[in-house]
Amino acid sequence: MSRGRTRLLRAAVTRLLSSLLVLWAAVTVVFVLSRASGDPVALLLPDDASADQVTQMKQTLGLDRPLPLQYLDFLGGLIHLDLGDSLVYKEPVTSLIIERIPATALLAATALLITVVVSFLAGSIGAMRRGTALDRVVMSGVLVGQSTPAFWVGILLVLLFGVTLRVLPAAGYGTPAHLILPATTLAIFSVAVVSRLLRSSLIEVMGQDHVRTARAKGASEARVLMGHSLRNASMPVITVLGLELGSLLGGAILTEQIFNWPGIGRLTIDAISARDFPLVQGTVVLFAVTFIVVNLLVDLSYAIIDPRVRSHA
Amino acid sequence: MSMTAPPKTTRRTALRLGAAGSLLGAVGLTAGCGSAADSEGTGALRIAQPSEPTGLDPHLESGLDGMNVLINIFDTLTMRDTKNELVPRLATHWEATDEHHWRFRLRKGVTFHNGEPFDARSVKFSIERLIDPDTGSTIVELRSVDHVEIIDDHTVDIVMAEPDPVIPEKVSLFGGVMLPADHFADVGAKGFAAHPIGTGPFRFVSWRKAQLLRLAAYADHWNGRPAFDELHFTAMPNPASALAGIQSDAVDLVSALDPEAALQLEGYKDVSLTTHPGIRMYFVVLDTEHEILKDARVRRALNHAVDVPLLISAVLNDSGREAATIVPREAFGYDPDVKPPKRDPGEARRLLADAGHADGLTLSFTASNKDQLVSQALAGMLEDVGVTLELEILEPGTFAERLASDDPSSLGSMYLTGSTGWTLDGEATMQSYIRSDRKRSRIRSTEADEMIDALEQTIDPDARLKTFRRMQEWLHDEAPFLFLYQADQNFASNKRIEWTPNVNGTLAMETAR
């Protein structure tokens, strides 16, 4: 085995172990915090439940057992991908989560697509027409997007397109039309971040020698952009896109509330307000795993885009 | 189904426009919200409420939003009609044969949605399953029932471990749903919850969680087929989406609107706002063992200082009624002769000066953030008589948890709360808030405890009425609460639906036209 490959293997193993450590830390923090946040039995039982009924319910839910035991059970289950049963829905947490993944995945993927397309357009325009009125208009538009909170934009979009014009459904899930408003709302912030980053990254790359050489050889502006600049400029953008996917998932919590979207975000909010410990833990495991996987993918993509990373791995 | 002119732009047009504008088209994706598209042809009634059931096993569901769905699938032994009278449902007649036996005669010729006949065995199975600790039910009303005895096919005795005068009221909702014993034995608890079978006016069709729960009319219902062909329930936790839903014709009825949200709909065409009397009582529990509040003069002063009619008109947009005590006007035992305290800041200042607080005083006050506006208004009114409230406004879950806590000081010297005694017996709210051994109670009075015991265990209605009267006079004089109001229920609907709820506010849609 070559020295390079050994190094790569060692890097991969270290990476995997640190990912597991991150996952363990995340679920442990959530386990402790959710237990500290309150008592689900108080919320499950009606006003006039007797002390006996409270005890009975705690026993049924397994909440009367010592915390360390509950914690070990939880970790043990996690190894077998068993996240326990929801206290409120009385169904396995895994199946409750799996039911909701498609809706959130669809929303986040669409928002990511909008982010990529719009910010590559806006970023390129800004970089190629740097300092012109067009650049300023596009970039201030983007800045406004970054400065407005999603819940506000979402409500305005609902009012305009759902209530006043009645061309798009105000809330709900099911048809592509239902996807337009929430995905747009969700994408607005990411578009702002990504397009500003791409613009500055492009401007930097376009000042480099190889681009000047391309220009000197008489390449068109479009060729300079597509062939010589975009690829180099997209390295930092991809890192940020990876992080943005995380914030898209986080943003989905708000957006799903506004648009009544039946995804993980709404499930998480419901679980937290009901102090449904196993379900809260389950959604956090999902979020943590998603972050870890996305970060791994981002690192891998460097190797594909930039050959230098491959050889130095 | 009665339909007035449908609005010009329907949801269907909106869906078509949206779908046409999209490259993907609507292929195979319409199921979730296809509800709107079928509604004109088949008469579906689309209902939005804040949450959906947590499951469809009626014995495991103790939330009102869940019951709103289940009450259409399951019939109960008795029911509250729209005039709030307790009337026959699956039981045609009932009486207490002695302190420990409630006899119910059952309706004949009733069938479950799967054809199984309803009879005494169904009652025995349903009630005994509910009270079995292994069921893990969160419904607590029938705790004093021991077992059910079958007298004949259509007669049962509910046998009590302890006497309970309000059993017929308690089987009008959560405790009284009837399940098919044989079918349940075949499919088991999980199978039953996945596809519930009742005798109710609507049968279960499908449920896509967080999206749509569909019920269809049961043609063979003993009381005749309901007017609407289908009921579509959607959970809309965010009031803004419910409002947008009714404005854009995506739903026909929005329940449980708070007064603020209802205000936004005023003057909106095609949407009508209806306010119906409700029985949810709001009051501030005063800690009668607190060093300042143990003085009844201070507690009376607080009651004089708060202008409840002004609070109702200014904060609640008039959707509430002033309350004399914690007993709702519609409840059995309500005494109209007990009047609300006089609203008189001068009297309040005098009483406070008498109690040695001429220079003012500071008290802590806890509430859920759902009641933030009311809390702030109360603080303002009390400030005028020299009482400063230190407000602690909590997230609802945290508040509920402190309500159930063993430590009474976790809610400060007083807390604002609401309570719904859906059995419509005056005693419903008293148990939890007055009896000295209850966690929510801040009263330690043997006199009050004795009255509650008498109310709980006496069957004779006249004797109970006398005790109710004494209790309300006691509440008025002792003022262990800051008595506030009885909240109305706000609904928004379009012109497609004519329906009157009872004071419980359950969405039993059998009577909707």
Structural commentary:
The complex is a heterodimer of chains A (313) and B (513). With 313 residues, chain A is mostly helical. Chain A contains 13 helices and no strands. In chain A, helix 5 (93-128) packs across helix 8, helix 5 (93-128) runs parallel beside helix 12 (277-305) and helix 10 packs parallel to helix 11. The longest helix of chain A has 39 residues, at 221-259. Chain A is flat and about 85 Å long. The two termini of chain A are 15 Å apart. Chain B is of the alpha+beta class. Chain B folds into 3 domains: 37-57 and 65-70 and 200-276 and 489-511, D-Maltodextrin-Binding Protein, domain 2 (3-Layer(aba) Sandwich), CATH 3.40.190; 75-188, Dipeptide-binding Protein, Domain 1 (Dipeptide-binding Protein, domain 1), CATH 3.90.76; 280-487, Dipeptide-binding Protein, Domain 3 (Dipeptide-binding Protein, domain 3). Chain B is built from 16 helices and 17 strands. Chain B has helices at residues 11-20, 35-42, 64-73, 120-131, 167-170, 181-194, 239-247, 259-264, 296-305, 308-314, 345-354, 372-383, 396-403, 427-434, 446-457, 461-478; strands spanning 44-49, 78-80, 86-88, 91-98, 101-106, 145-152, 155-160, 202-208, 212-217, 230-235, 253-257, 272-286, 320-322, 361-368, 387-394, 414-420, 481-493. In chain B, the strands form 3 sheets. In chain B, strands 1, 8, 9, 10, 11, 12, 13, 14, 15, 16 and 17 form an 11-stranded mixed sheet that branches. A 4-stranded antiparallel sheet of chain B has the order 4-5-7-6, covered by helices on one side. A two-stranded antiparallel sheet of chain B has the order 2-3. In chain B, helix 12 links the parallel strand 14 and strand 15 (387-394). In chain B, helix 15 (446-457) packs antiparallel against helix 16 (461-478). The interface between A and B is large, with 59 and 64 residues.
